[in-house]
Amino acid sequence: MKMRAFAIHIAMLFCLAANAQNMPGGVAMPQVWSKTNKSISVTDTLSQNTIGITAFQVVVPTAESENVTMTSGQTLVTSHRVAEPSSGQYINFLDNIPTNIPRIISIRRRLTETDTTTILAANLPLSESADSICESIIYSRMLSSRERQKVDTYLALKYGVTLDQTVPTSYVSSNGRVVWDAVANAEFSHRIFGMCNDTISKFYSTKASNAEEKNLVIIKTDSIESMSYVVCGDDNNALKYIRKEGQPKRLGRTWKLMTTGNTPQSVTIRFNAERIEEAFPLEDGEHYWLAISDTVYKKSAELGSRKAQFSDVPLRDDITFTIVAAKGDEQPEIEESQENKSGIYAVAVTPNPTTDGHVNLRIRLREEAAVKVSLYGLDGHQYATMSSGDSDFYNVTVTLPSVGVWIATVESGDGKQSYKLIRK
């Protein structure tokens, strides 16, 4: 970009509006501008003794134009680069970042008494470039790393943008709780999105998807209690089916949910299969199923062509889910995986469903070893457990406390298998 063009763009400074009640990420005293603020036309001047400035901008870059997003002193940030026109120095953003997808740009600049600290405003809209600016937030001080993390989380979840995970970056609520652990969830660090009720930030959402693949997977619920979060990410595997012998067709990609606070007991998950159907259409008699942590399946209710909805998906922390295509109306059978063949040979479960609540598990091991049987509710709560050892065969009776669906796990050595038990 030529220096003459810089001079033209500098004149289009972005607008800010004081909004003391707005605390993005729980960080107080921001000045906020968004393209919905049609009536704002003010001049805000930062005090000369401020030690710095921190600014955040959400923009939707386009391939055709380079739009101004923010200026501070001698620094100019556009949708394609950061530059200091007076010195001619600049840094270009990566060209492979998709256009038409929101991007979070942030700068933190230490100021001296001689720096220009006045931010001018113009009548809205800011010209055609305002169409690409979603939101601007500026603080007249240097925010701490933790404060920046909170504001980044607020903006990322609000616009369905994944924070850069080159270095694992966790998502943090306005009260300082980690709502997405980037280290623990490193395998699922792609296309992160979520919904929450953060009363400090005044950010409330009950429906979410990621902007990069908008509407491929949508998670929604009726309501969320105060300071509760549901955040989701995927493992970046291919959107194609994998078929293993003895198992139904399974989508290569898996998603993981992390919950914080008093989250709902269940959510609805919508899946738009258009991209998959083009290459892998359903066969006659096949239905979409949701595989939940490899223990529970839910059959979809189709929403027109190439769309599926799974209602009342049990919500507990650290569950994973993916899409399965299988024929018939009966739950697909899960064959014993290679990982679980080290200790458990076979498990027979009868009767299932049961009417009196008693289910018999006949467990055959490959060699004499200890075994552990546990009973869980769909809420993840453990209701019973028993352990025993020095045998290769066990006959265990499990009692289901009430009508509904329960999960029994059988563990021996490195082997672990789970079974859905139903009491009618």
Features:
single chain, 424 residues, 9-stranded antiparallel beta sheet, elongated
Write a concise synopsis of the structure shown.
The chain is mainly beta.
User: What global shape is seen?
Assistant: elongated
Helix content: under 10%
Poorly predicted runs are 1-20, 37-50, 116-130, 335-342
End-to-end C-alpha gap? 70 Å
Which whole number gives the mean pLDDT?
A: 76
Main sheet: strands, sense, barrel: 9 strands, antiparallel
What portion of residues belong to β-strands? 35-45%
Quaternary structure? single chain
Number of strands: 32
Q: Taking Cα atoms only, what radius of gyration do you get, to the nearest Å?
A: 27 Å
The secondary structure category is mainly beta
Characterise the protein shown here.
This protein has 424 residues and is mostly beta strands. Helix content is 7%, strand content 45%. It is built from three helices and 32 strands. The strands form seven sheets. Strands 14, 15, 18, 19, 20, 21, 23, 24 and 27 form a nine-stranded antiparallel beta sheet that branches. It has a five-stranded antiparallel beta sheet with strand order 1-2-11-4-9, with helices on one face. A five-stranded antiparallel beta sheet has the order 16-17-22-26-25, with no helix packed on it. The chain starts with a helix and ends with a strand.
